[in-house]
Amino acid sequence: MPEERNSPSYIGVLLRHRLAWPIITLLLLLAVNTAFNDSFLRIEWRDGHLYGSLIDILNRAAPLVLVSLGMTMVIATRGIDISVGAVVAIAAAVAAWMIGGSVAGDESRFPLPLALLAAVGVATLCGLWNGVLVARIGMQPIIATLILMVAGRGIAQLITDGQIITIYYKPYFFLGGGYLAGLPFSLFIVAAVFVLLYLAVTRTALGLFIQAVGINPSAARVAGVRSKRLILGAYVFCGLCAGIAGLLISSNVKSADGNNAGQLLELDAILAVTLGGTSLLGGRFSLVGSVIGALIIQTLTYAIYSLGVPPEINLVVKAAVVFLVMLLQSPEFRAELGLLIRRKTTREAW
């Protein structure tokens, strides 16, 4: 009997955890997909690797997870970066231009490692540019990154000469379309970035410093925290993640499109970060939550297309689901909802 009396409060504690509703949302989306597709959860071993809808979702979510991790660090410092989509396009354009190659697929204009480093390096410089504007010059984050968001598309199109560059160099395809130990190679890249970042924010003072800067930058500066360097580093890391994501995307589609690559990716990343429990006011952040949020976005996208929702309303459906989840995450909304339910129950009892 005591256990039964305590069980509701235990469930309540679990539901109040900031990752509870994102996890519940992800499970519900998986259940919806399973209900409409009997083979959704089926995973097979085919052609030397795992094959199935879940594997496909994980593979396609990899670029979004990377960008979301970088966005998490920026938002945690009270910033925002709406230029990540353009940075993705720039990195993809640089890699495609440097690789080039013939239709035979056995030649590259420059060595592959050099092309990869150049693409990621340019993306990191873009992050540095944003960081300097925000941390050093004091420009508002949304304005600073809006500049690169607009100019970045133009830069990417200049690199590609306004054309879609097709990549033929086969070794490059392994980044976004290859498999290692039966799993997509992109998952290992995401896992490496996540583990390194997670260890940095949990095993060192970095996480505490980021929280301090996000909660109160002035107080953090008085306490001796070098807030400008941390903010600068957050934008640099965000640019780095966007650059790697650009490589994965261009490798997967075997081309680079300066106009459409990474289109609206910044919005999906911001949604993923907020769905995962990171506060847009800064300070409170969750890396695990951002990963779950990215998986929610990708699973929702998969469900929309698999259910045959017309393309012209799929963004509306996505926005409605995200809006509902954000309401459920709000303590104020849950409190008001609980009050209304109690009032209704009391009236029915009378």
TrEMBL record:
It is a multi-pass membrane protein. It comes from Hylemonella gracilis str. Niagara R. The chain crosses the membrane at residues 20-36, 82-100, 112-132, 138-160, 172-199, 230-249, 287-307. Its main location: membrane. It comes from the Bacteria. One of its GO terms (molecular function) is transmembrane transporter activity. This is Sugar ABC transporter permease. It is found in: Cell membrane. GO terms for cellular component: plasma membrane. Keywords: Cell membrane, Membrane, Transmembrane, Transmembrane helix. It holds the Pfam family BPD_transp_2.
